[in-house]
Design a protein that fits this description.
There is one protein chain. The chain is an alpha/beta fold. It has 2 domains: 2-160, HUPs (Rossmann fold, 3-Layer(aba) Sandwich); 185-305, Riboflavin kinase-like (Elongation Factor Tu (Ef-tu), domain 3), CATH 2.40.30. Helix content is 33%, strand content 27%. It contains 10 helices and 14 strands. Strands 1-4-3-2-5-6 form a 6-stranded parallel beta sheet. β11 and β12 (232-241) form a beta hairpin. α5 packs across α6 (134-144) and α7 (163-172) runs antiparallel to α8. It is elongated and about 75 Å long.
Length: 309
Amino acid sequence: MIIINSLNEIKNLGKSVITIGKFDGIHKGHEVLINKTIEYSKKEKLTSIVFTFKNSPVSYFSNIITREIITEVEKMNKLKSLGVDVVIDIPFDKHMANISAEDFVKKILIDKLNVKKLIIGHDFAFARNREGNPSVLKILGKKYGFIVDIVQPVVVNEVRVSSTHVKDLIYAGRVEEIKNYLGRNYTIEGKVIHAKQIGRTIGFPTANLKLQENLIIPKRGIYATKVYIGDKVYVGATNVGYNPTVNGEKMSVETNILQFDKDIYGKTIKLEFLERIRDEKKFKDLNELKIQLKMDTNYIYKKYICKSS
């Protein structure tokens, strides 16, 4: 897969079929667009192109950092795994905000990318003042000689699949439902850092993660997680919150990895959220906290380790 980070880098890609969007999370709806693009490219011997943006247009206009479902690296890896030929991954900037729909089509899609088919979602809009909607693109397609395929929304459990809905589920801690819409469980990745190490003193050592700043963090609470360390997979009890029993002041994501006792400081690990077990709670002392943690880990062990052993 070729990744292009600037419009000036585009050279000799041949005739193409393109889908455009932020593709935040690459959920089931996004996968329909991308798979249609790849299928048509193979059928007609065209280059499949995903045209996307490094940053959210919303963050550009509002000057606020938007929370993301996946990192930029994960996004590229996912697109590669789906079989995309070329990803154009550029910043959404002043030029993108001010370009007219027709100039975008003529100067980019036609002159640079030689588009023969454009595949978009039913609510797609781009260019200056979001003037490039499906109706406008149909007209421009006839004018410049390319097909516009408008894909209807994917609906699961009577809910339209969208990045907004996936984000809402993460914020609400409803991690068991996310797979229905995202196509996989929600994961976060980070480097293991040194913290207060209070868990170790009561028999529950934890791996505390330093996370990418703009990632969405699930609702505060205790979760059952899968823990990926190198090529090994473990099960863990993950606390998302402030550790109120020990008067924690910073939000942290820390995991007690079951059946594991190795030094992994400085290593990058990935957490896959399986189930939210309970709310975060302030206990009267460390002994009461220890009793509850024992109950949490016993529950996770019986459900996720005994079941698979």
